[in-house]
Amino acid sequence: FLAPTEMSSPSLKTGAYILIGVGALTMLMGFLGCLGAVNEIRCLLGLYFTCLMVILITQVAAGLVIYFQKEMLKEELSHIVENLIETYDPLNDDERNLQDAWDYVQTQIACCGWTGAKDWENNEILINRSMTAYPCSCSNSSKDFQVENGFCNLDVPVNSTATYADWPVHEQGCMDGVEKWLKDNLGVILGVCTGVAVIELLGMILSISLCKNIHSEDYTKVPKS
């Protein structure tokens, strides 16, 4: 079986590190902003402004990278999912989190495989079972509604064989399902992103205003000669 490091890609790793960095910077930024506002410390408010600006620029850059590199990211994600499907094993605890995440995607989006249910014909366990079982998370049958992971047995005679066409599963591949979900929710996604950007801009404006007020107060407190 593939190790977790083999199930990723340089682009996805870079994206994960960026998100971790932005999260850590956000926590630090919030602390510095509160401390600077309460104690009226100009340098902390300036640092708060700088952190907000860096985060905003990072978000814009990430959006541009995703937009212009989407085909490459799609290809890398395709390889990751194909490897996951080929080595999927409900008894493998080492890959349980990754497998559960993929089962969740297939259940919520009502899809099967990356391009379609045929992808599951490359799974080692299903090959050994002559395709007489299928991934439960792909099922469109009401009897499997409560089962969201592992394999379900196909109702076929003993010692017979089957193909993915015999499975009671969704025909749509998850690649098309994800793209459809993004298109259907594009307005909400853009609205949330715009809202976050506006809040960050307001924070930058407020930090500058506080810095100016503190500077004005310091100036009025200077005794005139």
UniProtKB/TrEMBL annotation:
Topology in membrane: Multi-pass membrane protein
Instruction: Keyword check for Membrane, yes or no.
Output: yes
Keywords tagged on the record: Membrane, Transmembrane, Transmembrane helix
**Which PROSITE patterns would you find in this protein's record?**
TM4_1
Q: Name one GO cellular component term.
A: plasma membrane
Q: Where in the cell is it found?
A: Membrane
Q: Which family does the record claim for this protein? A: Belongs to the tetraspanin (TM4SF) family.
Name this protein carries in UniProt:
Tetraspanin
